[in-house]
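Sample entry (736 residues):
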Amino acid sequence: MTKRTKASRKTLRAQTVTAQASAIDDAQLTSSDHASHPVPPRTPPRNSRPGSVQSESVEDTPMSHSSHGADRGFATVEAAVDFLHEELSENYRLQSGPDFGVTLPNGVDDERLDDFLAKSRFYTKQKRWKGIPKKPSCEKKLYQPFLELICGILSYFQFTTRQAHDTHARKLTHVEGVSNTALKSSPDIFISGTGDAFCPVSKLRNSSKLSSKPSYRACASPLEIKTDKNYTFDSNLIQIAVYARQCFIQQENRFFVYSAILTETFIQLFQFDRAGVMFSGKINIHIHPRSFVHIILTLASQDPVALGFDKSIHWRNSKRYLSMDVENELVEFEIKKLKASFLRRAIRGRGTCCWNVVNPKTKEEYLAKDCWRSANRTPEWELLEKAKGLDGVGQMIGYWEPGFSVGRLRGIGRDTPGFRDRDFCRVLLERYGKPIHQFDDRKKLLYALRDAISGHQNLWNAEILHRDVSINNILMGKKDAPVGNRGVIIDLDMAILLNREGSLAGVDFRTGTRAFQSMMVLRSQTNKPGVIFPAHDYLDDLESFFYVFCYICFAYEAPGKKKSPQPTLLTEWEDFNSNTARHSKLSFLTESSDHDLSPWFGEGVFQTLLQQMGQFVYDHYMTKDRRLKQPRRCLNDLTEAAHEQYAIFLGYVDEAIEKLEAMQPEVAPDGTILASGVPPITPPRSSPSSSKRPSNDVLEGSPSSKKPKRNPHAPRFPSTLSMETGTIDDSLHKLA
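Predicted structure, serialized as tokens:
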């Protein structure tokens, strides 16, 4: 829509290279069905450094410009647009060949297509589509004519499970972050669908009634209408990417999403998938009516597989099921709560989606995880096989590799120039407890943290480095789990083998989850002459465990009760700018702070643990800082020191656990034993207003009111390493 497009354009950065399309004259179009579209010249990514070479291993990492966003989601659609522009930059766009989108669906042949063009009222003898104005004054003049034309095509070919809607003035709800549904968007035309791939209307699979209120959950394909004059390739692509992203998020079972841009003279088809986007040239709809009908039928295909759905996930009788091969037997699992338990909210990338499932026959519960890995990466299931039997590590039951790849879905080869392929895999894991941030008891929280750290050490001893420790990758153990499995670490997507050649590479700011990345990983985005960044090692991951613990301590007032608003500190740690996140973490460790723990966590034990971990993290960061001009060490050379450092770090947690276990639990008046002896939080009583300030108040502006408060969680004294001179990071000394 015109107004929304103008708003979006303002947010797109100046470096964007766009392909401006002038008004298209029929005589200027080639005789080919696919008139050549001028591909914008390639430009380096915005955050690339002058003279830097883009590594072929970029796809190994999830942090390269993702629209997944923070837990709170994007505040505006324009904010999402900026990230989508980065995520779908020139390196991840590919112009298709001539066969893209013109294959006739099952049940439609050339004879029937010719009959439609000859006998329908829509295509005239003047070789134009009836009702489509030659020179519309604005795009609104095209909404109704195109809607009638598309509805006519669907009706003639009896696509009864698909319906086209005019949604240019309707606000379709977005899902952003955790339960954030404030944002809206409006595709101009919306093709909805029913069937076992779609969420059923009123949860009834066989309902023949199509929803009168279009929702992205029921979207087959979103379409956008422009005029030849206001068509702009780059901004229009990002606009329909906003719609496609919501299809991925809200439907959860899409391998790819089609979309299209229509003007009074041409149509352009797009396929969004985990490798980015593939697009056709601009096809003149009047000169090549057959191709136009082909594409409309593709956008509304009644075959869910042809439309990009994962056929192994389907609805039946108001329930949702997931099927996969387990030990050479096809098993149909029921999906609990009818939706994914975790989903990456980005288009390009791993597309990780987790499902809590139950075997209806045995009643046993599992976690199924779908992921699209880079074609050159070690499959996660191979690492999970190597991790079998390790305490504190999520255990695999089986895996399924059906042979799907993005290249296969696009109909192109892996060796296609400018294309980075991805392979689909599903692993079935044992079901554990909730993520660690959904804690309900202080001791259980520390038990889970302790055993997950121990599990990380077990992986390291098995020559596997995790590299993506986060609150979503640490789970509480099963009920009554023994010591060692009261918490487990999961998700080996980003893990590497210590003897892998890639393990010799330096830390990479694109590896991991931003809020929990180590300072050295964050620092790697800023390159300086002569700096040799160390390899990502176990100390970076132990630092991530520290930030997970900090997040829980500072983000929550009590179990299930997040602080509102969230502390600025945590917001800074999630900042897309790696320098902002790093400086915030370093300031937290070295400067005065008001980040006090909630009373629910009690006094002493948690503060001491934070201080001990913080000192550990700070010391090792400074040690690495001193070595930035020294040759990079191989990870295998760190094995001996690792045993000692894990023992120190785990010792801090064990000491905290011992102190908590020694405390006598308090009993509430109703006989309920309170969590680890911590009384419930009660709101403070509002005192009556008084004209007198309490005697212990400090007048604003007095010297004592401005006295800095020492961060209770920072190191008690500066590390001796901080006294060294000649370190590489100049800003570190300013902050320290």
